[in-house]
Amino acid sequence: WVIPCSFSTQIMDRTPGANGDIVETEVMVGSRPDEHDGSKGESATQQTTVYPVTIGTSTIRLIDTPGIGDTRGIAYDRKNMADILQTLSSYDELHGILILLKSNSARLTIGFIYCLKELLKHLHRSAARNMVFGFTNTRISNYTPGDTYGPLKQLLSQHPDVGLTLTSHTTYCFDSESFRFLAAFKNNVFMDNEEEFRRSWKHSRDEALRLVKFFNSQPAHAVNSTISLNGARELISELTKPMAEISQLIRTNIALCEDRMKELSSTRLTGDKLRKRLQLSKVQLHPETLAKPRTVCTDAACVEYKDDGNGDGKVVTVYKTHCHP
User: Fold this and answer.
1) Which long-range contacts (CB under 8 A, 24 or more apart) does 226-230 make?
2) Are 140 and 146 in contact (CB under 8 A)?
3) Which of 249, 311, 259 is nearest to 283 (CA)?
4) Distance between CA atoms of 38 and 96, rounded to whole angstroms?
5) Phi/psi class of residue 188: alpha, beta or left (left: φ > 0; alpha: ψ in -120 to 50)?
6) Cα separation of 194 and 199, whole Å?
7) pTM attached to this predicted model
8) Whole-angstrom Cα distance, residue 88 to residue 278?
9) What does the pLDDT profile of the chain (325 residues) look like in tens digits?
């Protein structure tokens, strides 16, 4: 095994007249704290992990990521996506992105649409040429996309600008039953229909080789494009609160100015009273010093000089280029 996994299998006595209990056995291959048993309803992969797989003279780095639509909620989806992007930032190029789907989803459920759109939202559009769809559990559909094909094709047709299509180059059908058979065999749990599992192994192996060959033929995706896209999205999200506060502050100061203009427009005010009211009070935001230092560029092209807004003519330096967050 390269990636640890665990699953449950059952043994049933089907002899005529038998009414015994179904015996359940847990099969475990390897163990890691970031891989849970998905058979209990909990998401299996808990964090992004890189597995180097050596084939001949080449090394394929398989980045195993948590799935979108975590059973624990949207907050974990955000955490998982941040974990994925953090891992990707260590690499310059990405040769392939494999989106895994089950072959028996016959409807466009809200969860189905959410998972796919959430993934596409975080990837740069240039990554589309490196994206393919992998369908799992395809033995039941004779190693074809099965019921999932229709809903997925319909969803992709609604967004032609994304550049994703379902063709033989972007569609790969796998089945993990042969691996489960071997894992159970090594744990002294024996399953029937060995020939079916052999057929499953051969087909999945051929599909895996075809997948690697296709990824080798494609230009690599520059990871910094995706990282920059998500950095901009995160920055915009973080700016929402301060921008709202600044907008409210501007409206408040405009209201104060309008009220003072109404007062000054009164003809009953004498010269002395007018002079006393020339000073206008305004509301200002005051910056707070960060708890930790940040690296900034002090080159003349990377800074701005602005009035501090206190009316004393003092100029402050604005370091607009941050080298590190």
Assistant:
1) 226/85, 226/88, 226/94, 226/122, 226/123, 226/124, 226/127, 227/85, 227/88, 227/89, 228/124, 229/122, 229/123, 229/124, 230/85, 230/122
2) yes
3) 249
4) 25
5) left
6) 9
7) 0.65
8) 58
9) 777 788 888 877 777 776 777 888 888 887 765 555 444 444 555 678 888 888 888 889 998 887 776 667 777 777 877 788 888 888 888 899 998 888 887 666 676 777 777 777 778 888 888 889 999 888 888 889 888 888 888 888 888 887 888 899 999 999 988 888 888 888 888 888 888 899 999 999 999 999 999 999 999 988 888 888 878 877 888 888 888 888 888 888 888 888 877 777 765 666 676 666 666 667 777 777 878 877 888 888 888 887 766 667 778 888 877 776 5
Q: Alpha-carbon distance 134 to 140, whole Å?
A: 15
φ, ψ of residue 233 to 5 degrees: the values are: -65, -40
Q: Do residues 294 and 325 lie in contact, with contact meaning Cβ atoms separated by under 8 Å?
A: yes
Amino acid at 233: R
CA dist 216 and 130 (Å) reads 10
CB 10 within 8 Å of CB 22: yes
Contacts of 24 (CB under 8 A, 6+ apart): 8, 9, 10, 11
Residue type at 111 in one-letter notation: G
What are phi and psi for residue 104, nearest 5 degrees?
-120, 30
H helix runs in the chain, sequence order: 74-88, 110-121, 149-157, 177-186, 194-217, 223-264, 271-276
Q: What is the DSSP letter of 310?
A: S
Neighbours of 289 (CB within 10 A): 5
Q: Are strands 97-102 and 93-94 parallel, antiparallel or unpaired?
A: unpaired
